[in-house]
Structure formats: structure tokens, C-alpha cells
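Handout, section 4.2: multi-component inputs.
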Amino acid sequence: MSNFSVGFRTHVAPEREVRVFDLTGELDAHTAAELEAAFQKALADGSYNLLINGTGLVYISSAGLGVFMAYLEDVRERGGDIKIAALQPNVFTVFDLLGFPFLLHITETEDEALERFALPYEPEA
Amino acid sequence: MLLLVAGFGLALALALQTTALLSGRPLPLLLDLLHGLAVLAGFGGVGLVATHAMGRTSEPRPHTLWALVLVVAVAFVFGILLEWMLVPGGIPPDERAGFGFLKNGAPASPRTLLLMLVASLVGFVVALFVLVRLRDFVLWRRTPLAARFWRWLVAGLVVNALATEFVLPYVAEPWQTYLDTGMGIAVATLIGLNVVRLSWIVYLTFREKLFTLITVLALVAVIVAINVKIAPSADAADTVQRTFNTLVSGPFAERFSPGLAAFTKGILAFGMIYGLAAFLLLVFHLPTSTDFERREGGRMAFTEFSRLIGQAFNTQQLADAIVEASVKGGVADRAWLALVDETTLAPVVVAAENVPVEDAAKVVDASAFLADLSPERLPVQLDEALADLRVRHRLGVPVGSLLAVPLVAREGDVLGMLFAARTEPFGFASDDRKALQGVAAQAALALDHARLFKSRVEKERLERELDIARSVQQRLLPQQLPQLPRVDLYASSVPALEVGGDYYDALVLDDGRLGLIVADVSGKGTSAAFYMAEMKGVFRAVARDTASPSAFLRRAHRALTLAPGTFVSALYALFDPESGTVTLARAGHCPALHVHEAGGPPVLVRPSGLGLGLDHGGAFDRVLRETTVALGPGDALVLYTDGLVESRNPEGEEYGYERLVEAASCHRCQDASRLHRAILGDLHDFLRGEPYADDLTLLVLVWLGPVGHNAPPSATFVPSDLPLTL
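Output:
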């Protein structure tokens, strides 16, 4: 039924550890719970630097987008951040239309996002 | 009736013997036959009545066995006493034949007569009792073969008795010996076939076995003691021999009726052999008894568990039953169950037996076990659990060895893990593991059922909710769009299978401008319908008071009370039918499409703006921009929701903006309803029957130009929410 999955990786940089989530498939109202569970587990483990790699993400619905927003504030309060990298063009459009680039870093590559974790988030607009 | 015949038979037999006593001669041939028939009727009747009275059972209890042993012992004592009464001090066996009888075989005194009757009767009744009681044991858990062998034995004993009474005395030697020996071998064979039926012994508990052994030994001791007291010269074996003789094959019973004596002798022989075999088996089974009892207890526990889990649909009840069965089944000293939480996906200990739940949760790292599971989901056995890193042993929970069995649902999902611990290392044998795997498999099935049941209930609830949400959504959409001169407006909203949160509305403001809104609430179902209603309230209340689209959206952003993670994308356009100018602001919504009647291609109008409710800092106001587009006469403004551009064909390809622009370009110069229909038609062709997953809202406005402009005839204004079937 569900063709969505979340893969976990941990990227250890000298100054900080970043939890990388590889999203594959379609993130919609049905599969959003899986991403939510993954985020909760990361928070429970004390990981607040979360990076989404969207290379395999082919579709995202508004419920899927909601997950990011639901956790963004929480993560930032604890000194971490959520960043999104390597989105496919159609998925990026969805983020872009809603104005997500004004709220969090959406970068073209994972490395770029990893570098940005070094800097505190500053709103662009 | 039967008793009457029996009484008559016995009386007749006694009378005939009395005539022999009085005449001092044995009975002549005819009278002897009559005596035989009288004995047959008398004892046959007594036998049938007694057999019936003793009843039968399919499952003999240990006390039946003890009663049997006691009766036999009492009979032995009675036999000894009887002999003692006859000959105080005992007499050599070879001289006993003539005792109490005349040389010709007739009874010598009334006492002889009495003893003949008493010995026959007592021997017969005891033998009958033995036969009837042993039948219950021999035929316990009977098979057709066992029942047949038993019938053959009884028939053999009866035939042997009848032949001994009525045939044997009248046959000449050597045939008499042949017949006698042949019948003896036949009866012995039948006894052999029935003696092996001893399986009931295995099911006696250890205490019952021990008690039986002690009872038998004590009774034998008592008998020997009595015998030694009465006949100091005789040893134990001799006692058995002589008692047997007195009761069965001794002169009294045999002279009275050889057939009856043969019958009694046969049964008692069977009883003795069977008793001896049972005794030996009892001795051999004593050491393994405890193990067997444990197994049996386990089997009962598992049976009870199976029965229970078939009835329970409550996860907690099931969990409790699972850990209880594991411990009561004897495969573990303590057990606990960790189930994977559906939202956090982390294992949570929900039930524990013989250990507090909190301790069980701490003593073993359940998530590590789940993470380390093999692809085949095999159980993990730790013979020395304390050496494993995943086991923390400083909690006072004795975990010497540990068995972790995953609960795998039919679809292959791991529902959780059953942990069984033994206090000592190397505590689990392979059959323990198999038993636990059986419990886990059944448990997984039951939990899966419970889950399915719950999800079905949940689904039905959701469906009811969706029905409500759908009807609410339909009522929230405008039943009729406002009609303005020089404006051709057409709109529709098709709810998807799962109700989304699309909303559109139109309102003529006091200054004559037309306010248009298209919005999409994130999420689905009841909550989406609820936010839609809120959106409508905000629109109806605020639109009239705000001069610009951006002001409206800022007000809406503040007014909406959205749950975290919920947001609304909206586009608000203010259209001036006099000048044809549209001012619009976009809060995260799909861009508007401006379709020129002539000249350039359609243009996507996309001023910047965040979705409503996405951000609670100042970003919304900072980012929001507003833009003005001047429509030319015949130009169209197309507003829509993401259900249009994100609909996917069977190949998973999105309809997308390019196709929308292309379709709008092809069908420009049409009136609003035709352009609307053309765009949906193009989408329909693209989807090739694939249903769209989201609501689809499409609103088309065509400006017919300023007053006096020679425009195409105005289209009729149709109610906008016609259900469209694509």
C-alpha cells in the first residue's frame, strides 16, 4: 500500500552530528506518520540537526509539508535545525509555492546543507 | 427378573449338592449337567447384575486403582482366614484333595457344602470386580483394536468356562488334555494381548504413583504378616499359591463347579499379570514423572491460551495472556512482551509475568533486539544472557538465559518481541524454544486480528466522518456565484474520494469590485472541513473591511486558529469590472493564470507570499507581496488548487503547469464555462481514467470589456458546484 520509506544516516562532522533522512516515494497524509515517527525518534535520541535528503521523494502533499512545520519550531528551540536538500523539481515547486524557502534552508545538494548547519539560520527575506 | 433366575439357580445348585451330601454319592450324569446349568444361571445372573452395578467410566481415577488393590488384598486375607478355619496350622498340599470330601468326590459334611458355596461366590465376585475395573484401565483411550482384544478376552474366558464345565469332563483322554492345554494357551495369548494396555500409568502424577507403590507394598507386607502369624512355616510365595488355591482352584470351588473355577482362575491370572506389569511400569516411570507433569501442565496452559486469545480483541488482554502462558507453560521463569508503538515505532513493554513491567522494560534493550533481527525473523537465544551487551543485569532481575522471539504479522511486519528468561544460564532446550515460537506465532496472529479489528472500526468511523465532512464541504461552497455585468464567471470544485479542504468563494464588495478567493486547507477529512468553515467565516467577515488583497490575507493569517503543522494556502483577487484590473495576493497558493485573448501566451501570476499559518514570526508580513494585472477585454483569469496541477496519470506523471498553460492557450477566446470545461477535458485526457487524489477546484473569470465594448455574447451564469464526472 505504502510506497514511502525513511532511511536513516548519521553524518558526523567535527563540530556537530547531523541526522540525515533519505525520503523515498510519496509523502502524503497516510505516510506522514512515518516521517513523524522518524523525527520523534531523532528528538528522543537527542539529535536536533535534521537534514532531509529528497532525492527519492517523488511527491509531497500538504500533510507531508505539515510535518516539517510541526517540528521546525521545536527543533530550533533546542538549538538544532531542519534543512532540506536535493529535492526533485516538482517537489521543490510545492515547497517553493508555499514559501518554505523563506522559513528554512532548501539547498540543491546535501553537502551544501551540511555546511549551512555551521551557521545559525537567518531568514532570507 | 435376573436376580430371581440367579436365586433360583443358586438354590437349585445348593439343593443338588445337598442330595449328594445326603446320599453320600456324587451326582449322576444328568443331575450333574442340571447342576452345571443351575450354576451357570445363578452365577451368570449374579455376574450380570454385579457388572451392571459396578458401572464403568471412560477415565479411571487413581482411587479406582487403589480400591482395586484393596479389594484384592482383602480377598487374599479372606482366603488365608478361610484356609485357617479349615485347617489350623495348615496341611501339606498333597493331602488336601480328599479333605472334606468322600473318596468318591461327594461332599462329606454340611460345612464342606457351605465352604464350597462361599469360596465359589467370594472368588467369583472378586474376580468379576477385578475384571470390570481392569476393563476401565485397559480400555482407557481405547482404540478399535484394543476394544476388539478385550471382547475376545472376555469371550475366551466364558468359552473356556463353559467348555470346562460341560465338555471337558465328558471327553476321553488324550483329547481331554489336548483341549485343556489348547484352551489354556488361547486364554494366555488373549491375556498377553491385553496386558500391554498400560498407558494410563504415564498420566498419574508423581504423588499418585508414589502413593500407589507404597499402598501395594504395605498391603503385601500386611498379608505376609497375617500369613506368618497364622502359618509361621509358610513363606510369601507359598501363601500366594495356597490362597489362590483355596479361592479358585482349591477343592471347594473346583468340586462345586469346574467351569466357574476356570472362569475365576482365568480372570485372576489376568489380574495378577496385569498388576505385576503395572507395578513394574509404575516403578520405572516414577523418576520421569515430574518432567512429564511439567509438559502436561504446559500443554494445558497453551490450550487455555489458545482458547483465550480466540476471544480477546483487546490488545492488553492478549498481551497479558501471552506472558502468562509463557510462564505457566513451563518454558520460562519470567516473561514479558514488548510491542512496537504505532506512532513512535519504538518497542514498549506492555505486559510482564513474574517481573514488574518497569524492570522488564529496563533489563533488556528491546529496540536493540528488534534492530538486530535477522531477515528471517528467527528467535534469538542467549544461553549466557549476562554476557550480552543488550542485557543490563544490575536490576535484580535474574536473567541467566534469555530467549527473544519476534511476533511477526501475516504481512511480515514485526509487531513486537516476546522475551522469556530463565534464572540459570543454559536454561532453554530446543523444545522450549519451539513452544515459545508457537506462542509467539499465535500471539502475532491474535494481535494482528485485534489490530485489523481496530483499524476496521477506525475506518468505519472515518468513513462516517468523511460523509459528514463531505456534506459540510459542499454546503460551504457557494450555491450561486454573484452576477455582474461584463463579467463571465464559472467555477467548480470536485471533492476527491478523501475529502480535502478546497474552498472558493466570490463576493461583490460595496465599491462594486468582485472579491474572489481560492484556498486549500492542508490535511483531509473532518479537520479540513472544519478549517474550511473557518476560512469561509474569515472571508465573509473580513473581505468587506479590507481594501487590498494583502491586507485581507494578513488579517486572515492572524484570525485563523490552526493546529501546529496545519496551514492554508490561499489566493485572494480583487477584480474591478469597470477597468478590468485585478489586484491579487497569494499566500502560498498556486499562481493565478492570466490568459490573454490575443497576443502573448498565458502568464502565471505569482507574487511572493507564505502559506497562512506556516510561520508565527514576522515572516508572513515580510514576504507577502501584492500584484496588479490588467485584463484586456476577453482575457481570462484562471484560479485553481493544486489538485489540478498535481494530478497524476497512470505513469505517475504530474499534469503540471506547462500543460495547464498550453491547454489554456489553446482554448482562449472562449467563454468562462467553455474554457473551464476545456481545461478539465484536457486534464481528463491526460489522466486516462486515473482518479485524482485531491480536491480539484477551478475558477474561471472572463472579462467582457468595458461597457460598450463589442464583446462576445455573455454566457449564462450557471450554479458553480455542478458535480463533474471526469
